[in-house]
Amino acid sequence: AMVKVVTVHPGNAGTNLPTISGEVIVADARDGRRLGVLHGAVVTARRTAALSLLAVRTLRRQGWGASGRGDLLVIGAGAQGRAHAEALAGEPGVESVVIASRTNDKAASLAGRLAGTGHRASTVAATGGEFEAAVAGAAIVVTATTSRSPVLTGGLRLDAVVCAVGAYRHDMAELGADVVGAASTVVVDTLVGAKAEAGDLIAAVEAGAWSWDQALPLAVWLGAERPREAARRPAYAVFKSVGHALYDLAAARLAFAS
Q1: Which CA distances in Å does 167 have to 28, 46, 133, 159, 249?
Q2: What is the separation of C-alpha 23 from the centre of its chain, rounded to a whole number of angstroms?
Q3: Which of 4, 28, 222, 244 is the Cys-Cys partner for 33 at CB 3.0 to 4.6 Å?
Q4: CA distances for 240 relative to 101, 172, 205, 224, angstroms
Q5: Rounded to the nearest 5°, which phi and psi values hold at 140?
Q6: 3-state secondary structure of 191
Q7: Which residues pair with 221 in a beta bridge?
Q8: Do residues 132 and 75 lie in contact, with contact meaning Cβ atoms separated by under 8 Å?
Q9: 160's torsion region: left (phi>0), alpha (psi -120 to 50) or beta?
Q10: Strands 20-27 and 2-8, how do they pair?
């Protein structure tokens, strides 16, 4: 059993202090013994990236992103951008990692970190021609920002997999409504969470570009009754994650497995 305690401090922006701090307190559910405390930010970053990795591998086995090689494009160079870059850089077919961020120093730092572990990495501006070329060349795209307006509005490869993980509130949106509407499939971590918190999907519904009956929980793809291949349109796939306590619990069980 676990409980996650989180505090948010917007006033820390621009300082060396995190804006979000948290701990995961883990206990043995059978007798209540405290097993330990995990660093909340580390658990959040790693379990989110691990879930995206699972989604990417699952969708690629179904054909998305498997028809050719390409780059991993990570939009955002914060904690989630770093975790996703580290998790996905070694995937088969990923030739290099491209980091796009509005903060050049963070992008360069992350690219340098990846290069230090043996990966080809570079940076591009978050807008403009170079960014559009990076989108067009990416087999996997990760959006890991807290933007309230879309940072990805089109230009994707038809065989790409998009992991949208940064927007976790109803008033945030990293993907344009047309990007959501044109996807061949939209997979969510949990449907209840997505309907309440996935601002990108909520905006696409409000714009009439997409509907909730087109969303599939990741558990469906992992189960025995997967969607029929024949129903798939020739376009990219989107995985939308807003987070859920069950993934923190999974991380806690892994950390304290006996």
Answers
A1: 33, 17, 23, 23, 22
A2: 21
A3: 28
A4: 20, 13, 14, 21
A5: -130, 130
A6: helix
A7: none
A8: no
A9: beta
A10: antiparallel
Q: What angle do the packed helices 40-61 and 79-88 form, to 10 degrees?
A: 40
pLDDT tens digits, 144-163: 998 999 999 999 999 899 99
Q: How far apart are CA 143 and CA 201, in angstroms?
A: 14
- Are the C-beta atoms of 151 and 124 separated by less than 8 Å? no
| Phi/psi at 224 (5° precision) | -75, -35
What average pLDDT does the structure give for the chain? Answer: 91
Query: Side chain identity at 245, as an amino acid letter?
Result: A
Burial 95-133 (b: 16+ CB within 10 A, else e): ebbbbbbeeeebbbbbbeebeeeebebbbbebeeeebee
pLDDT in tens, 213-252: 999 999 988 876 666 553 456 789 999 999 999 999 999 9
β-pair partners for 240: 164, 188
The per-residue pLDDT for 192 is: 95
Say how many C-beta atoms besides its own lie within 10 A of residue 231's C-beta: 8
Q: Per this entry, what is the length of the chain?
A: 258
Structure token digits, residue 5: 């305690």
Q: Can you tell me which residue has the tokens 């933007």?
A: 147
- For the whole model, what pTM was predicted? 0.91
Distance of alpha carbon 251 from alpha carbon 54, whole angstroms: 14
Pairing of strands 138-143, 70-75: parallel
CA distance 73 to 85: 8
**Structure-token pair, residue 119:** 């990966």
